[in-house]
From TrEMBL, chain B:
This is Serine/threonine-protein phosphatase 2A 55 kDa regulatory subunit B. One of its GO terms (molecular function) is protein phosphatase regulator activity. InterPro entries: PP2A_PR55, PP2A_PR55_CS, WD40/YVTN_repeat-like_dom_sf, WD40_repeat_dom_sf, WD40_rpt. It comes from Chinchilla lanigera (Long-tailed chinchilla). The gene is Ppp2r2d. It comes from the Eukaryota.
Length: 236, 453
C-alpha cells in the first residue's frame, strides 16, 4: 500500500530477501536480542525509510505525524550508520528534480523547504541513487507538475520572499488570461474610463471607473427586462 | 433459555461475561471505503450511540425502551437518525482535496429535548442539532391544509390551530460551522465541563472555541517551530479535564503528555505538568519512538487518572505523578518482534483508541484480527475477545481468544503469523453507566452486553 507501482518490482524482492536476513536482531529467540541493542541498521531499513519519506512527501497534504516519525527514525538509522558508511561522491541526484516538483506543489512551503534540506543531507549517503525515478512522471492528479528548474535552488522561490516569483514580469503572468469578456458589446457604450483589453490585468479598474450615466443605463436595462418578465399577480 | 457454552469465568465480583447483542453494517466481503467506521461515541446517558464514517456520514442509534414482554432482553439499539455531516471539499487556494471522513464525534450534555453533537473532519467542526418532531399543527386560520392561502372573504370565524400527533420524524440540522481555524489535520475535539467551550487540536495547534461563536477561536497551544526544520514532534490527541474547566491535556508523537492550566496564561505553550516514562534501555530499537507515539488520551470519569494508548500498551497515569504511569497493560506484546514488518506495511502507524468503563474499574482497547482487549484494573485480569460474524448468535457468550507466541500452538489458539492485520479495531466505546460496549470492526458495528445484571 505504501509502494507505488513503479517501485514495487524493483525494490520489493530485494527488501523481502534482505529483511528476512537482517531482521535477526529483532527475533526474540536470537541470543543477541537480550544483549545490547543493535548499533548498526541494515541498509535495507534505511532504504525503506527513505522510500517512506519520499512517499509521504508526495502526498498532496502529507500526514505530518507520519512524516515526523519517519524522519526521526531515519535520523536514528543514519546516526547509527554514520561511522561505517562509505560516502561515494554524491550522484547529481536524479531524485532531486522530482522531489522538487512535488515540493513545489506542496501546501506548506516552509515545511517542504525544510524537508528538502534534510533530503539534501541524506542525498550524500549511499542508497539514495536508487530512489524513485518514476516520480518525475507521475504528478499527483490535479496539481501543477513540472515547470521547476532542476536544482534545489528552485526552492528559493518558495521562501518568504515572494517577490522572486514576480521578477519575470507581470505581463508574463497575465498572458494566459481570457480577456474575451472585456471585448463584449455590452460594455461598448462605456465612458472613456473603461478600456477593456489584454493590457489590463484582471480588471480591478473596471468598476470604479463606471460613471453615473453608466449606472443609470444599466439600471434601466435591468429594470426594463424585469418589467417584461414579471407576470401580473396578486399584489404583495 | 439455554446459554451458549460459557466463557469459563466464575460469576461474581467484577468478572464480565460478554455476550453478543447486535451487529450493524453490511455483510459483504467487499467493503466500500466510505462505509469504514472512523469514530464511535455514546452520549452522556448512553441512550444514543453515534458513529461517523469515511464517507462523512453520521449514524445515530437509539436504545429501545425495555420491553415488558421480554424482560430478559436489554434494550436494543436501532437507527434513530442518519445524515451527511461533511462533504468532500476542494481547497482552491492550495489545490488540495479535503477528506470528508469524520475524525471525531463528541456529544454535548443534554439541556433540552433536542440532542447536540460536534462532528469534525480534518478541517471543519460542525455542531448538529438532532430533534424529534411527533406533532404537527392543524387548523390554521389563514391557510388551508395543503398550505394555500385561504380566500380572506371566506374567513368568518377565528380558529386556533391544534396539535395533532404524527409519525415520528427525527431531523438533524447544522447549527454552527466552525471553519478555517486549522492549517493542519484536526485529530481531537473535546467539550469543556463548562458546557460553553470546546477545544480542537491539530498536529501543531490547539484552539479554544465558544459554542455560540463561529467566526473566532483562541489559539491556546502552538508547537509549530519558527523554523520547520526543527519540527520533531506533533500533537496527537487532546482532552479537557472532566471537572476542572481550566485544565486540559495533550499527547505527542514522542510519548509525552502535557497538562496545561488555562488560568496560568493565555497561551499554554508552557505546561503545568509533564508526563513521560523513561525509556527502557533493554527494549530499545529503531522503532522505539514510533511505538511510543501516543494515539489516544482519555481522562477517567473521576478525573483523577488519565489513560494513554501507544502502539503496544495502555498506560494509566495518576495526575499527581509525572515520572511514570501507575499501571501498564500490554495489549499485544507479541508484536514487538514483528515491528520491522509492521513498519514496512505501515501498520506500526495505526492509531488505536482506548476507553474507560463508567466506574473506571476497567479499560478497553482494540487490536488486530478483530480482537479487542479488556483490562479489569481491580481484579488485575485481562481478556482478549473477538468481534466476528461467526460469534454472532443472539446472546451468545464470547469466548476468550489467545494468541500463541511460540512453541506449540494449542487448540483454539491463533499464531501471530496468522493474524489478519487488515482487520483492525481502532474505535471502541463503553456505555457511561452500564456494561454495554460498541466495537467498530471496519464497516461493522458490534454491540456486546454483559450477561450479569
Amino acid at each position: 500500500m505504501m509502494l507505488s507501482k513503479g517501485l514495487k518490482r524493483k525494490r520489493e524482492e530485494e527488501e523481502e530477501e534482505t529483511l528476512g536476513v537482517d531482521a535477526w536482531w529483532l527475533d526474540p529467540g536470537h541470543p543477541a536480542v537480550t544483549q545490547a541493542p543493535p548499533t548498526v541498521a541494515s541498509s535495507s531499513l534505511f532504504d525503506l525509510s527513505v522510500l517512506k519519506l519520499h512517499h509521504s512527501l508526495r502526498q498532496s497534504e502529507p500526514d505530518l505525524r507520519h512524516l515526523v516519525l519517519v524522519v526521526n527514525t531515519l535520523r536514528r538509522i543514519q546516526a547509527s550508520m554514520a561511522p561505517t558508511v562509505t560516502l561515494p561522491p554524491a550522484p547529481s541526484p536524479p531524485v532531486v528534480p522530482s522531489v522538487t516538483d512535488n515540493l513545489l506543489a506542496s501546501s506548506d512551503a516552509m515545511l517542504s523547504a525544510s524537508m528538502a534540506s534534510l533530503l539534501e543531507d541524506l542525498s550524500h549517503i549511499e542508497g539514495l541513487s536508487q530512489a524513485p525515478q518514476p516520480l518525475a512522471d507521475e504528478g499527483p492528479p490535479g496539481r501543477p507538475v513540472g515547470g521547476a528548474p532542476p536544482s534545489l535552488g528552485a526552492l528559493d522561490l518558495l521562501g518568504p520572499a515572494t517577490g522572486c516569483l514576480l521578477d519575470d514580469g507581470l505581463e508574463g503572468l497575465f498572458e494566459d488570461i481570457d480577456t474575451s469578456m472585456y471585448d463584449s458589446e455590452l460594455w461598448v457604450p462605456a465612458s472613456e474610463g473603461l478600456k477593456p483589453g489584454p493590457e489590463d490585468g484582471p480588471d480591478k479598474e473596471g468598476a470604479p471607473d463606471l460613471d453615473e450615466a453608466e449606472l443609470d443605463y444599466l439600471m434601466d436595462v435591468l429594470v426594463g427586462t424585469q418589467a417584461l418578465e414579471r407576470p401580473p399577480g396578486p399584489g404583495r | 433459555m439455554a446459554g451458549a457454552g460459557g466463557g469459563g469465568c466464575p460469576a461474581g465480583g467484577n468478572d464480565f461475561q460478554w455476550c453478543f447483542s447486535q451487529v450493524k453494517g453490511a455483510v459483504d466481503e467487499d467493503v466500500a471505503e466510505a462505509d469504514i467506521i472512523s469514530t464511535v461515541e455514546f452520549n452522556y446517558s448512553g441512550d444514543l450511540l453515534a458513529t461517523g464514517d469515511k464517507g462523512g456520514r453520521v449514524v445515530i442509534f437509539q436504545r429501545e425502551q425495555e420491553n415488558k414482554s421480554r424482560p430478559h432482553s436489554r434494550g436494543e439499539y436501532n437507527v434513530y437518525s442518519t445524515f451527511q455531516s461533511h462533504e468532500p471539499e476542494f481547497d482552491y487556494l492550495k489545490s488540495l482535496e479535503i477528506e470528508e471522513k469524520i475524525n471525531k464525534i463528541r456529544w454535548l450534555p443534554q439541556q433540552n429535548a433536542a440532542h447536540f453533537l460536534l462532528s469534525t473532519n480534518d478541517k471543519t467542526i460542525k455542531l448538529w442539532k438532532i430533534s424529534e418532531r411527533d406533532k404537527r399543527a392543524e387548523g390554521y386560520n389563514l391557510k388551508d391544509e395543503d398550505g394555500r392561502l385561504r380566500d380572506p372573504f371566506r374567513i368568518t370565524a377565528l380558529r386556533v390551530p391544534i396539535l395533532k400527533p404524527m409519525d415520528l420524524m427525527v431531523e438533524a440540522s447544522p447549527r454552527r460551522i466552525f471553519a478555517n481555524a486549522h492549517t493542519y489535520h484536526i485529530n481531537s475535539i473535546s467539550v469543556n465541563s463548562d458546557h460553553e467551550t470546546y477545544l480542537s487540536a491539530d498536529d501543531l495547534r490547539i484552539n479554544l472555541w465558544h459554542l455560540e461563536i463561529t467566526d473566532r477561536s483562541f489559539n491556546i497551544v502552538d508547537i509549530k517551530p519558527a523554523n520547520m526544520e526543527e519540527l520533531t514532534e506533533v500533537i496527537t490527541a487532546a482532552e479537557f479535564h472532566p471537572h476542572q474547566c481550566n485544565v486540559f491535556v495533550y499527547s505527542s508523537s514522542k510519548g509525552t503528555i502535557r497538562l496545561c492550566d488555562m488560568r496560568s496564561s493565555a497561551l499554554c505553550d508552557r505546561h503545568s505538568k509533564f508526563f513521560e516514562e523513561p525509556e527502557d534501555p533493554s527494549s530499545r530499537s529503531f522503532f522505539s519512538e514510533i511505538i511510543s507515539s501516543i494515539s489516544d488520551v482519555k481522562f477517567s470519569h473521576s478525573g483523577r487518572y488519565m489513560m494513554t494508548r501507544d502502539y503496544l500498551s495502555v498506560k494509566v497515569w495518576d495526575l499527581n505523578m509525572e515520572n511514570r504511569p501507575v499501571e501498564t497493560h500490554q495489549v499485544h506484546e507479541y508484536l514487538r518482534s514483528k515491528l520491522c514488518s509492521l513498519y514496512e506495511n505501515d501498520c506500526i502507524f495505526d492509531k488505536f483508541e482506548c476507553c474507560w468503563n463508567g466506574s473506571d474499574s476497567a479499560i478497553m482497547t482494540g487490536s488486530y484480527n478483530n480482537f479487542f482487549r479488556m483490562f479489569d484494573r481491580n481484579a488485575r485480569r485481562d481478556v482478549t475477545l473477538e468481534a466476528s460474524r461467526e460469534n454472532s448468535k443472539p446472546r451468545a457468550s464470547l469466548k476468550p481468544r489467545k494468541v500463541c507466541t511460540g512453541g506449540k500452538r494449542k487448540k483454539d489458539e491463533i499464531s501471530v503469523d496468522s493474524l489478519d492485520f487488515n482487520k483492525k479495531i481502532l474505535h471502541t466505546a463503553w456505555h457511561p453507566m452500564e456494561n454495554i460496549i460498541a466495537v467498530a470492526a471496519t464497516n461493522n458495528l458490534y454491540i456486546f452486553q454483559d450477561k450479569i445484571n
